[in-house]
Design brief:
alpha/beta; 272 residues; Nonspecific Lipid-transfer Protein, Chain A; single chain; Four Helix Bundle (Hemerythrin (Met), subunit A); two-stranded antiparallel sheet
Length: 272
């Protein structure tokens, strides 16, 4: 067995955001999304996205509905008590509601709604709803997680990921900075490490993500026995389920014990 030796950061030690950082991350993600939407041509809004049930219009409708849910506890409960259909994930039922209620809105109306509700939602997610933030709920993808996790980590990640979806659908460049996009990706890696902990069974791998938002991390305990290298944006597309397992593996470079990497990434999903 040949160990992989690189300079790396322990993924499990990636710090959790505080309220101020959560506010900044979501604010930046939101502003970048708005800039992108305002640059789109009318024909871009009907283009299909990596979320195969949605075109760009549907995706933005989901974002508008998501930010509306942060305006008040009453609206949050209205959306989050949506009863899933048989075999449907809870968030899919919520997404269906959000998109359906905005099916006939124009692009300009969706952008106007985002501008109207977004700032209040971002403020509330970071600093409000304190009576419910510590409530923990089981989630089929995210595992056992607190409502604070959704508000401080998942919302900014969701907006970031959908901006990437829209950029690729409309063939637009994806605006990136190390400070913002690198931190979003780092928090994804933190969740990846938490999910892989039991799968690694005391072993470790090196995760090398390339590009502006990338970095090098150790996942697991001890000296890494293998490594996976992938473009940082492609990695997020992969672990969100937008790439199939086979496509994700084809887009990666694996070193060391190939079977270890292949096994731990089988059916791995991260909540966005």
């Amino acid at each position: 067995m040949t160990a992989v030796s690189v300079t790396r950061t322990r993924a499990e030690a990636i710090p959790y955001p505080n309220a101020d950082e959560a506010h900044r991350l979501t604010s930046d993600a939101f502003e970048r999304l708005l800039r992108l939407l305002e640059s789109l041509h009318m024909d871009d809004w009907s283009k299909p996205t990596a979320c195969t049930a949605w075109d760009v219009h549907d995706m933005v409708a989901h974002q508008a509905g998501g930010y509306l849910s942060g305006v008040s506890l009453r609206e949050m409960l209205r959306q989050y008590t949506r009863i899933p259909k048989k075999g449907q994930l809870p968030e899919d039922a919520i997404n269906e509601l959000q998109v359906g209620e905005r099916k006939h809105k124009t692009p300009a109306e969706l952008i106007a709604e985002l501008k109207r509700v977004g700032p209040s939602a971002i403020q509330n997610w970071a600093y409000g709803f304190n009576a419910i933030k510590w409530i923990a709920i089981p989630h089929p993808v995210g595992g056992f997680m607190s409502i604070r996790d959704l508000m401080w980590v998942t919302h900014s990640r969701d907006t970031w990921m959908h901006r990437l979806d829209i950029c690729r659908a409309a063939n637009r460049p994806f605006e990136q900075t190390r400070e913002h996009d690198g931190r979003i990706v780092e928090l994804v890696v933190r969740d990846v490490a938490r999910k892989l902990r039991t799968r690694l069974r005391g072993q470790a791998i090196t995760l090398t993500l390339t590009g502006v938002a990338g970095g090098v991390w150790q996942v697991g305990e001890g000296e890494p026995a293998a490594g996976l290298e992938m473009d940082a944006l492609d990695f997020n597309i992969f672990v969100s389920g937008r790439f199939s397992y086979q496509e994700g593996m084809e887009r990666s470079t694996i070193s060391g014990e190939k079977s270890l990497v292949e096994n731990v990434f089988t059916d791995l999903l991260i909540l966005y």
